[in-house]
Amino acid sequence: MKNQYTAVIVGGGPAGSSAAHTLAKSGVDVCVVDRFRFPRQKLCGGLLTQRAKKNYAAIFGPGWDEMYEHRCDGAKFFDGERLVNSIENYGELYVCDRSRFDARLIDKSKEHGAEFVQGDKVKAVDLRHRVCKLQSGKEITCRYLIGADGVNSVVANAIHNGKTSRNGKAFALEATLPVAALSREIAEPEIYFDSIDWGYGWIFPRNDVVVVGIGGLFSKNRDFKANFNTFFRDRFGKAFTGVVKGHFLPFGEYSKRMGRDGVLLAGDAAGLVDPITGEGIAYAMQSGWFAAQSVLEALSGKTKNVNAAYRKRCAVITGELAYAAKIRNFLFSAATRALFITALARSSSAPYRYMDLMSGDITYRELLKNSGRKLIRMVASKIAGK
């Protein structure tokens, strides 16, 4: 490890790897610093959509089939024990082991010359001089700094002067269990809209294991462990006795500035997680790629303001998240949640549009345009008592 680089990336997840791969491939000397040694454990359902596949191909090229452990072509949507709707022969959905997924991405970045410092935490950041101070006592100076270090980002906290709140974030509890330990077979992803306030539960198959979890807005729920235990018991007919782990994640509150003064925030560090679908991996890769492209543009002299260039690129993401934050009030609030479930149950196309949304084939604006009239008729019918 040198003490000075053109670019330093804090965090070796999908956002950090995408940025590192893009920069290193263009010949930029770049260093990724992560506090863990890879492969490291990472709490995440691991669902990968066509959006993630497209972003992966654009950034890393071939090799997608080595990135996931399970593939399926459908999903089921539940309200309690009631199957509300389902998708069959939709196309490919994937479930990955995040520890392996992230390790494979960082390896691809290293193959192009990115340096990777692992097992050494960035404990402080000097934004003015762009210096990362590591737990080991070492210091790294850079021209450009990309914070891709997750929801509890050291870089983001430095930018925001530590003024962050958990109330705008979601919290998730998750357990990974052997298939043999469960009372029934899980063949495809299952989504449950009744398991927690302002959120949902999930059961994802991954070859020889199953991932079970719940996630919801932190400020709307007070006993996540009790909710998880109830969710598990209702789904499998027995008490949960394994190990459950929790983590915070962004939930619609993304960074408006996306950084400042040559410091860029990407992925969860920038709050780029869809507050309805929970999509985060695809946006992490895309924002890391955008950050690297903006740095390359600044290095070539095509732009004098790397932060403005990055915000402009990320508008395609933040614009979607702004719409999603508004729509989630209809999906999750107690006053209108029943209408959403009714609409989902009545429509044969609704679950497919949901998956199209996750795949990036339609936008939230297009979804509202296509669904608005049906919702208005449904609300009118509800008021009329029909």
TrEMBL record:
Classification via InterPro entries: FAD-bd (IPR002938), FAD/NAD-bd_sf (IPR036188), Geranylgeranyl_Rdtase_fam (IPR011777), Geranylgeranyl_reductase (IPR050407)
Residues in FAD-binding domain copies: 6-161, 254-305
Pfam families, A to Z: FAD_binding_3
Organism of provenance: Chlorobaculum thiosulfatiphilum
One GO MF term attached to the UniProt entry: FAD binding
NCBIfam families per record: GG-red-SF (TIGR02032)
Name of the protein this chain belongs to: NAD(P)/FAD-dependent oxidoreductase
Organism ancestry: Bacteria, Pseudomonadati, Chlorobiota, Chlorobiia, Chlorobiales
